[in-house]
Design goal:
single chain, 418 residues, alpha/beta, six-stranded mixed beta sheet, 13 helices
Length: 418
């Protein structure tokens, strides 16, 4: 017998700010979550799976219209026609208090939100236990009240949780992995963590990751887990990629490069490799140029030209299936900054002033207080990004000044051989 474990579909998740990027494949990415769900259904049917379990966050909050729910219903109908049973729970994004619209889903079992429940499939020898989120922020251990395992059956625990803390995820339904292990279930189908993770194998505690990456913080292959059972035990577990657009952060080491053209060539070589690994999917890539290089000064002075050179060249890779989400410049200059500070001119004074500013928390506080009004004059998303990068703490402010030194001084030195 086979079953499929999925989570975090985030169907029709809004793509905030994507329209700001010129040339962004908005519609292709906007429809990616639906196409990934279609791929999930294809996987269940193609592999002859008897059961699909979904560990929360099917939706991404209340639907803007019924089209979201109707699409989900149409895919569940395909599974019913193929005799694939479905069990799901609500997560924090589709908690009962958030999704107020309702659908009739024949053949789909939703486990309750007010207390743990179980679905018994006698013909499969499988019991699924679980509880969904009644409210968005569930901060108690739901699993503690899950029923005891059914003897002689393969017990699956369906749970939306961050366990006892997973980086980058809110601590919802917290619990200890050890407590889940001791519950006596053969398999814990977990959700909420967007990175595929096998926590333990005896018994299996598994996060399948989300079905489709939604931004550049969710890189790599996304999909679901296909589980094969033999004689009531897991014989094989395989993560299957189901995404249709894939995000990647491409870090390009510019060390040793002497020109912007050479750096761009390195970018394109790495993009070709990343795109090849995507197997025909759209690649949405963030480029980070880093390393100490003689090309730094030219990269700083010609940032816009380099960005456009990379974007235009990427359009011809893999039949246009590569989109450059952003190009970030983090290279460092092959400059003797100690010698600059010793110069008896304006550049020397500026270089020394940056050193003094970094060393004085009081001066930093004064400077960034004066800059604080900037975040209120920008669009909300840019303001939040500025808040994170510029005003987070003293360490972040010092990093900003490091960037100023690396960006400003090479510009001032352009054409200066001193």
């Amino acid at each position: 017998m086979k079953f499929v474990h999925a989570a975090d579909l985030h169907l029709d998740s809004p793509l905030t700010g994507l329209e700001r990027y010129e040339g962004a494949p908005v519609e292709q990415i906007r429809r990616a979550s639906r196409r990934a769900l279609g791929n999930l259904v294809d996987l269940c049917i193609g592999e002859g799976a008897a059961l699909l379990v979904i560990a929360g966050d099917v939706f991404d909050g209340d639907w803007r219209d019924y089209a979201t729910g109707l699409f989900f219903a149409s895919q569940m109908a395909r599974l019913q026609q193929a005799d694939v049973r479905v069990v799901w729970i609500r997560g924090n994004h589709d908690a009962a208090c958030r999704v107020t619209k309702h659908l009739v889903l024949p053949g789909v079992h939703e486990l309750p939100c007010d207390a743990p429940g179980s679905v018994v499939f006698e013909e499969l020898g499988v019991v699924v236990h679980g509880q969904g989120f009644a409210t968005q922020a569930v901060t108690r251990d739901l699993s503690a009240a899950y029923p005891e395992p059914v003897a002689g059956a393969f017990n699956i625990g369906l749970l939306h949780t961050a366990l006892d803390g997973m980086e980058g995820h809110a601590p919802y339904a917290p619990c200890k992995a050890e407590a889940l292990v001791n519950k006596g279930y053969e398999y814990w189908a977990l959700g909420h963590v967007h990175q595929h993770t096998v926590v333990t194998r005896e018994p299996w505690l598994v996060f399948p990751g989300n079905l489709q990456g939604r931004n550049v913080r969710e890189t790599g292959a996304k999909g679901a887990v296909l589980v094969t059972l033999e004689h009531g035990r897991v014989q094989n577990l395989e993560h299957r990629a189901l995404d249709v657009a894939r995000y990647a952060v491409c870090r390009i080491d510019a060390a040793g490069a002497s020109s912007t053209d050479e750096v761009v060539e390195r970018v394109l070589r790495q993009l070709e490799g990343e795109a090849s690994a995507c197997d025909g999917r759209l690649l949405a890539a963030r480029i980070v140029l880093e390393g100490t290089t003689r090309a730094h000064r030219a990269l700083v002075v010609e940032q816009e030209q380099v960005r456009e050179q990379i974007r235009s060249a990427a359009m011809y890779l893999r039949d246009g299936q590569v989109w450059i989400e952003k190009v970030l410049f983090a290279t460092r200059a092959e400059v003797d900054f100690a010698a600059l500070r010793a110069r008896d001119d304006a550049i020397g004074e500026l270089s020394q002033a940056l050193v003094d500013l970094r060393a004085s928390p009081e001066q930093l506080e004064t400077l960034f207080a004066e800059l604080g009004d900037l975040k209120h004059r920008l669009p909300s998303e840019l303001g939040r990004e500025l808040e994170r990068s510029l005003f987070a703490d003293v360490a972040a402010q010092r990093r900003v000044l490091d960037d100023v030194e690396q960006l400003l001084l090479p510009r001032l030195l352009a054409g200066d051989d001193a």
